[in-house]
Amino acid sequence: DALRQQAVAMPIRKTTSLTGLPPALQLKKLVKRFGDHVVLKQIDMKVAIGEVISIIGPSGSGKTTLIRTINMLEKLNDGEVVLFGEDFIQGHEKPNMKKVRSGMQRIGMVFQSFNLFPHKTALENIMMAARYHGTTKEKEVCRKQALFLLNRVGLLAHANKYPHQLSGGQQQRVAIARTLALSPDIILFDEPTSALDPEMVGEVLKVIQDLAKEGMTLIIVTHEMDFALSVSDRIVMMEHGVIQVDTSPSDIEHADESTPELLRMKRFM
Ligand code: ADP
C-alpha cells in the first residue's frame, strides 16, 4: 500500500481511429532476404491507428522476420515502412538516422524471451527503460511512473524482486510494463506467450487484451488462436513470405465450404 500511494498515473496513449488520419503503419512492398533465401516477398500491409492485428501462419513463414524488419532489428532489402504518414525506413536508401531514431521510439517491442536485465529488479528494469528512452529522464518521476505501470500489470507487490524470483508470466508482464514506459504508439509482440508454461499464458494475454481495449495499436504474432479471434480487428495469415489472407475474425468464424481459404484458417486455428 505504501508503494501504491507513491504510484502516479503515467499517461498511456489512447488512440482511436479517426477518419482522415494516416495509418499508424504502412508497409509497402517489403522485401527481406537472408542470402539467396527471400523470406519476405513484397509485403504490403496497412495498420490503422488503434487497430489490433494478429499475424498467424506456419513456422518459417516469415512472421518474426516481418515484425523484426518493421522495428529495424533486421535490415530491409527493399520496400518502405511508413509511420503515421511519414517515411521511416526505405529499403533502397541509407537510413536517415534522425528519422529512424524518432520512429523507433514510437514502436515498442515485446519478445518471446522477456529479455529483462537479470541483476536489476522489476522496478529498476522499467525505470531504466523510461530514463534512457522515455519521455522524462528525471529519476523520481521515472520511479513513480514505473510503479504505476507495475500496478497496471498487477505486479506492484513484486516491484523489488529480481527476474529469477518471478515466474515466466510475471517476467513477461514486467517486460510489457517496460515497453509501456517508452510511451510507444504501436506495440509489436513476437509470440509473447510461447516461452511460457500453459498456466501462465492467460495472465499475459489479459494484459495485452487490456491494451487492445484501450485503443493501443498492436501487431501480435501468435499461435494462441482463440485469443487472436477474440482480440483482433484483423487476422493476417502468412505463408512462404507472403500474406495469404487478411481478414476479420468474424469472417473466419463464419467460414464454410464456399470460402475454402478462410475455412483453412479456421482449421489451422
Ligand atoms: P516464423 O516467425 O513465421 O516462424 P521466421 O521469420 O522466423 O518465420 O523465419 C522465416 C525464414 O527465414 C525461415 O526459413 C528462417 O530459417 C529464415 N531466417 C530467419 N532468420 C534468419 C537469419 N537471421 N538468418 C538466416 N535465415 C533466417
TrEMBL record:
Q: Which UniProt keywords apply?
A: Amino-acid transport, ATP-binding, Cell membrane, Membrane, Nucleotide-binding, Transmembrane, Transmembrane helix, Transport
* Keyword Transport among record annotations: yes
Q: What do the Gene Ontology cellular component annotations say? A: ATP-binding cassette (ABC) transporter complex
Quote the protein name from its UniProt record: Polar amino acid ABC transporter, inner membrane subunit
Q: Which subcellular locations apply to this protein?
A: Cell inner membrane; Cell membrane
Q: Which GO terms describe its biological process?
A: amino acid transport
Q: Which family does it belong to?
A: Belongs to the binding-protein-dependent transport system permease family. HisMQ subfamily. Belongs to the ABC transporter superfamily.
The membrane-topology field of this record reads: Multi-pass membrane protein; Peripheral membrane protein
Superkingdom in the source lineage: Bacteria
Give yes or no: UniProt keyword Nucleotide-binding.
yes
